[in-house]
Amino acid sequence: MTSATTTPRRALSSAGGARRRVACLAIGVALVVASIVASLSFGSRAVDAAQTVDGISAWLRGETPTDIGALAVQSRVPRTVLALLAGAALALSGALMQAITRNPLADPGILGVNTGAALAVVIGIAFFGISGALGYLAMALVGAFAAALFVYFVGSVGPGGTAPIKLALAGAATTAALSSLVAAILLPRQAVMEEFRYWQVGNVARADWATMAIIVPVLVVGGLIAFLCASSLNALALGDDVAVGLGVHVGRVRVVAALAGVALCAAVTSVAGPTGFVGLMVPHAVRLASGPDQRWLLPLSALGGAVLLTAADTIGRVLGSPGEVEAGIVTAFLGAPVLIAIARRTRMKAL
Length: 351
Fold this sequence. Notes:
Number of domains: 1
CATH class: Mainly Alpha
CATH superfamily: ABC transporter involved in vitamin B12 uptake, BtuC
Pfam family, one: FecCD
Order of helices and strands: HHHHHHHHHHHHHH
Subcellular location: Cell membrane
Number of helices: 14
Helix content: over 70%
Structural class: mainly alpha
Family: Belongs to the binding-protein-dependent transport system permease family. FecCD subfamily.
Protein name: Iron ABC transporter
Organism: Microbacterium dextranolyticum
Number of strands: 0
């Protein structure tokens, strides 16, 4: 009797979960479309639907529109695309870091990866005369990987291994130390500070196609690796011993997924600056809505991150009109309460 009733219940639960995830996917796609329309339509100058269509049509034809509203729409296309790419990459990076560490506080900003990339870019500008997106990308990758390794090492030493709180504290301390080094390098160098000050809080205002063409290959490779690791990450959530019993190479999966997550974060940081909290907020919201299955969590997180950063950029332009509030400030304002709520939860040892 028990077996006969349990099987239908499991089938119904599985079917219900699948419907919920498909609904989340549909909602995510709809929100991406809505965020694109809002980003193109709103800013220091609001435009109507006809001007939005004219601006997009002219951009697709490679023409320069004569209407000022349509011209404003056309100028917003690159930053909208960069916001979508950057948000998706940051959320995907955060989801990977949370999965491989089983740490609810894992996030590129909290674990010092963003700041490590920023410090490396500043060093490249100040001491090696590096300029351009390719040079920034190379330095950001080096700095991000170095910071990630250092934080993981510091958070792993001592009794208890890599506990969530230890990693979060190690990341916070590393972020503070690296931020101080950034300030120490910038203060006596006015020219470098001018180059860096708009970039450091995270924004997509200086988006251009040439820059995006350089980082897109890194984002594509990192995203593909992340999605290919999804099933193995599900096994890791059951514990290392169970994962090994299921035939998963635990160390290899962690290294590969970590490389993908850090590369995604570094590529975005090199062009948009260290934008925080996207990788923390989005995976948590998606996990509550669709469950912990990484095969759904990763793509839904990418959609959610794209929506969040694009919306943050749009909100910043509207609130700061005729100037703008950088997207990184908006995401920090939204993310701080989320971080406090997560920190107050009682079960923080693992996801």
